[in-house]
Design goal:
The complex is a heterodimer of chains A (458) and B (488).
Chain A lengths: L1 H27 L6 H5 L3 E2 L3 E2 L5 E7 L5 E4 L7 H4 L8 H5 L1 H4 L6 H9 L4 E2 L2 E4 L3 H11 L4 E6 L6 E7 L7 H10 L11 H4 L9 H11 L8 E3 L2 E4 L2 E4 L7 E3 L1 H6 L3 H8 L4 H10 L28 H5 L9 H12 L3 E3 L4 E5 L5 E4 L4 E4 L3 H17 L12 E9 L6 E9 L6 E7 L2 H4 L3 H13 L1
Parallel strand pairs in A: 1-5, 2-6
Antiparallel strand pairs in A: 2-3, 3-4, 6-14, 7-8, 7-19, 9-12, 10-11, 13-16, 14-15, 17-18, 18-19
Helix pairs in contact in A: 7-18
Chain B lengths: L1 H25 L6 H30 L2 H24 L5 H21 L1 H18 L2 H7 L7 H13 L9 E6 L2 E8 L4 E4 L1 H19 L3 H20 L3 H19 L2 H38 L10 H13 L22 H9 L1 H24 L3 H25 L17 H41 L7 H15 L1
Antiparallel strand pairs in B: 1-2, 2-3
Helix pairs in contact in B: 1-2, 1-14, 2-3, 2-4, 3-4, 3-5, 4-5, 4-14, 5-16, 6-16, 7-8, 7-9, 8-9, 8-10, 8-15, 8-16, 9-10, 10-11, 10-15, 12-13, 13-14, 14-15, 14-16, 15-16, 16-17
The chains are: A alpha+beta (458), B mainly alpha (488).
């Protein structure tokens, strides 16, 4: 009995030691840890830079010597970097602990401690690419929407833009006007790239096609004659602009984004299996992402009213998704079926540039098989080669992707989507673009994506 | 300047703590009395040095005269207690006394840091309780037939546990807290105190199991004992005090094993408990076990529900992690962000401000208390005392495990206090009673051992006086004298 307790206590002590050595760093970096603010008493908040060395957040000093936060690129990095007063957001929030920790050399820190001077906090090197971020930011123009660019094989986020935006340098007055309701658009602080929930529109057909392929090993024999409209489960469906696509197989259906063909496919799908597939991809659950985001939802299952099927399988209905999640689904396909955890912080350096900690890519898990990923890639390449994705069709590089038009009201007003990756043979980047109310702004998601791909390969 | 002094004091106190912790265990290396006495005296010096350093920092940082006054009172009581107790009970275990005083002083220090009023009340309660319970060994020496009243302990225990169901707002009525109805409020009109009957029933329960199994360990007796034990646990389950029920179970199984030495009973009980647990789960799933499932889920992943159920444990881990190995230093952490910081989560406050190293040494000190109790139990010749000391040892260490394991996410949290360190009337008072009873057992056992020793000497002396050749000449003069005294 005595030995049992001795054993348990030894285990407990080892457990606590293990916690201190391996887990405590990431635990205390949690943004819910109120102690972080206390660190600011002894440490000057560190800088935030892009991976190509552009400073995107630093400190400046007023005439009276007071220290304040300065964002050299203003609103361009607004949602990605966030802000550190009036609450925190973005990297300022998720990397708060590191920004307020100093790994300056020990002599300097001792001297500072004795003189009661503050130490310099560490520098955060983000995964953001200045070139891609500025291209995405400019391409979105005055449109509303979001852009997310990430590397499918590592999960590093290269660009994150959300519009309408704000200038974090004047966060105090913006915060005031948002809370007082004196601002035109009170969603300017919302990071649409990770928190904006949109109907996925036709980009969702990729998953419908995958489920169809899973249930029908002979899917290559599938044929359907599109008449531009049709009735499925008592619901009338029509193709975009009532276009008649004629006889289509599965690759054609996806390439032309044929709504009637997909509605036809949907009527025979096993909804419980489809539900499982979507949840495997992260719907209705947590995404492997450390920052703030909203959960996507997919509610259709075997118990649902059959009349919901036609709308749902083409990405309308009750399904909602964030641009981050849509990008992750495409990245999983590009990465041979393995989803990598997306992340924004690449490295921690002390203020003199000496590396303190490096974050390495890690997989969230395999979602689909490599052969399924390969088959989907071929289908998605068709979309760009001869279908609706012609805007990104070029000789300079190859792209596989899917466009989308997501209706958000009864009048047929819609958001414009594009999500895809290049190069098809050896994927470099995934680009996900959503443009709200595209009919008004006239900006199409695929053309924004084109500018980003061009910038990457220039 | 204050910063420099505080930093030096912080590191020096950790070093001294480490030496103290080492002495707690190295003391068992030798049986040489003189050597032991020297080490035990050294421990006392360490206790007061560490306590001085802590209060020095507290005074410098808080700058209140009250801190100094409290410090003076603590020292006075501790010194008086140590000196007087050892004088009147020369056979008491000094290691247990040292550890008891140290744990109390440890608690006072942290409570002063958290909130002076807690510290003052805790100090007052502990001092008064100590004054009263110091007579326990005396009573035990006088009344040696305590082992005969087992039915009284059993029935009294169950009745006491049932008092929490007294409804209404009268003089005495039950109270609910944190989802369990396990408090009893005694309302005097002008003031009211709340006690947790299970804290005291635990002691009665140890008396009960120890005595009933000391009488006989036949199957029939074991069945009766088990029936009583199950009733105790059943009442606790109805109160939704599952942590309490678990402690009673562990106490019962341990004493049963020590008394019978039959693994069959031990595993039988474990199996029975699993069956009962499963049955209770099926019957009371809705009312009772949702509360348990929530606790378990919060243990597995506190981060998922950080704003609600996972809040306490997340805050505790933030505190422990942020403090680091050496701690933030007293008054430099943020204990205010930890819920129930003065009682259940006091360990996290210690880890944050005094350092994880200090906290680990605290665990070792607690374990040393356990070893001290076990040592008392092993020296006992009478099974009643042996069972009892063993039961108290298990009762103590199991509580320490539930508390520290709970706040460090080693096991699911059960809402148990850290004995002697945590703030709380019931907890401190009942733990002090446990310590005194164990001391009483030690005193009785040591006296009996001395008696046996004397008897032996008497025989030898008798043999000597008959003129047999012996090398024990020096004992010749003394031994008969003592024997004479004994025969008076």
């Amino acid at each position: 009995m005595t030995y049992v307790f001795a054993g348990i206590f030894v285990m407990m002590i080892l457990y606590i030691a293990k916690f201190m050595v391996f887990d405590s760093q990431s635990v205390i970096a949690n943004s819910y840890n109120a102690r972080q603010d206390k660190l600011a008493e002894h440490v000057i908040r560190g800088d935030i830079v892009t991976m190509d060395g552009e400073v995107i957040a630093t400190n400046q000093y007023g005439a009276d010597g007071s220290e304040y936060r300065y964002y050299p690129h203003g609103s361009m990095f607004a949602h990605a970097v966030g802000y550190s007063t009036n609450g925190k957001a973005g990297v300022e929030l998720t990397a708060n602990y590191y920004l307020l920790t100093s790994n300056a050399n020990i002599f300097e820190r001792t001297t500072n401690a004795l003189q009661e001077k503050k130490n310099m906090g560490d520098t955060i090197v983000t995964t953001l690419d200045y070139n891609l971020q500025s291209t995405a930011y400019n391409a979105l123009g005055y449109g509303k929407g979001a852009v997310l660019v990430l590397e499918p094989d590592t999960g590093r986020i290269l660009a994150m833009v959300s519009k309408p935006d704000f200038d974090p340098n004047s966060i105090d007055s913006i915060w005031k006007s948002v809370t007082e309701g004196t601002v035109n658009d009170d969603t300017i602080l919302l990071n649409r790239a990770t928190q904006g929930l949109y109907p996925p529109g036709s980009t969702f057909k990729t998953l419908t096609a995958l489920e169809f392929m899973r249930e029908n090993p002979d899917w290559e024999a599938y044929q359907y004659t599109c008449e531009g409209e049709g009735v499925f489960n008592n619901i009338g469906m029509h193709c975009y602009n009532n276009t008649v696509h004629g006889t289509v197989d599965l690759p054609d259906s996806l390439a032309y984004s044929c709504n009637t063909s997909f509605s036809n496919i949907g009527t025979d799908l096993n909804l419980d299996r489809f539900h499982t597939l979507c949840e495997d991809f992260g719907f209705n659950g947590a995404l492997p992402y450390g920052g703030n985001y909203n959960k996507s939802s997919f509610v259709l299952d075997g118990t649902a009213d059959k009349s919901q099927i036609p709308q749902t399988v083409i990405g309308q209905g009750k399904t909602q998704i964030t641009p981050l999640h849509n990008a992750l689904i495409m990245a999983t396909i590009a990465n041979g079926g393995v989803m990598m955890k997306p992340y924004l912080v690449d490295e921690i350096r002390n203020y003199e540039g000496v590396r303190v900690k490096h974050f390495t890519p890690s997989a969230a898990g395999r979602v689909i098989s490599a052969s399924e990923a390969q088959e989907l890639t071929t289908l998605l390449k068709g979309v760009v080669d001869y279908g609706t994705g012609s805007a990104v069709n070029t000789d300079a590089y190859t792209v596989a992707g899917k466009t989308g038009t997501a209706e958000y009201d009864e009048e047929g007003n819609s958001h414009s989507w594009f999500v895809g990756f290049s190069n098809v043979e050896n994927p470099d980047i995934v680009v996900c673009v959503v443009i709200e109310e595209a009919d008004y702004s006239g900006i199409r998601a695929a053309s924004v994506a084109r500018q980003i791909f061009d910038a990457y390969y220039r | 300047m204050i910063t420099v002094i505080a930093t030096v004091a912080q590191y020096v106190s950790i070093i001294l703590l480490a030496i103290y912790g080492w002495l707690c265990f190295s003391i068992f290396k030798s049986t040489d009395k003189k050597w032991k006495e020297k080490k035990l005296t050294r421990q006392i010096v360490l206790i007061f040095s560490i306590h001085f350093l802590w209060y020095l920092v507290l005074f410098l940082k808080m700058g209140e005269m009250k801190v100094l006054i409290l410090y003076g009172c603590e020292i006075l009581v501790a010194v008086l207690y140590m000196v007087l107790y050892h004088r009147y009970y020369p056979n008491s275990s000094r290691l247990i006394t040292n550890n008891m005083c140290f744990l109390l002083l440890f608690g006072y220090t942290v409570l002063t840091r958290i909130n002076m009023n807690y510290a003052i009340r805790q100090f007052a309660i502990s001092t008064v309780t100590l004054l009263i319970v110091s007579f326990i060994p005396l009573i035990m020496l006088r009344y040696r037939n305590l082992r005969n009243y087992y039915y009284i302990y059993g029935v009294l225990g169950i009745l006491a546990l049932l008092t929490v169901f007294i409804p209404g707002e009268g003089f005495i009525h039950g109270l609910s807290a944190y989802g369990a109805r396990n408090w009893l409020a005694v309302d005097f009109g002008f003031a009211s105190i709340s006690v947790q009957p299970s804290e005291f029933v635990k002691i009665l329960f140890v008396f009960f199991v120890a005595s009933i199994l000391a009488k006989s360990t036949e199957f029939r007796q074991v069945v009766i004992a088990t029936a009583f034990a199950v009733t105790h646990m059943g009442v606790l389950v109805l109160e939704k005090d599952l942590g309490g029920a678990l402690i009673f179970f562990v106490i019962y199984v341990s004493i049963l094993y020590v008394a019978t030495r039959r693994p069959l009973y031990f595993f039988g009980c474990l199996g029975g408990a699993c069956a009962m647990g499963a049955l209770a789960f099926l019957l009371l799933k809705k009312q009772l076990f949702r509360h348990v499932m929530v606790r378990v889920n919060n243990w597995i992943d506190p981060w998922a529900d950080i704003n609600d159920g996972g809040y306490q444990i997340a805050q505790s881990l933030f505190a422990i992690g942020s403090g680091g190995w050496f701690g933030s230093g007293l008054c430099e952490g943020m204990p205010d962000s930890i819920p129930v910081r003065e009682s259940d989560f006091i360990f996290s406050v210690i880890a944050e401000e005094m350092g994880v190293l200090a906290a680990l040494i605290l665990i070792l000190i607690c374990f040393s208390v356990f070893i001290g109790f076990i040592d008392v139990s092993m020296k006992c010749k009478q099974s009643f005392y042996k069972n009892m000391a063993f039961g108290f040892a298990i009762c103590y260490i199991f509580q320490v495990l539930l508390n520290i394991g709970g706040v460090t996410k080693f096991i699911p949290s059960t809402g148990v206090t850290l004995p002697l360190v945590s703030y709380g009337l019931s907890s401190v008072a009942s733990t002090l009673i446990v310590f005194q009873i164990t001391q009483g057992i030690n005193i009785i056992t040591s006296k009996e051992a001395e008696k046996v020793e004397r008897e032996k000497e008497k025989i030898i002396a008798g043999a000597d006086s008959k003129g047999t050749e012996s090398k024990r000449v020096p004992a010749k003069g003394k031994a008969p004298k003592r024997a004479k005294q004994n025969s008076k």
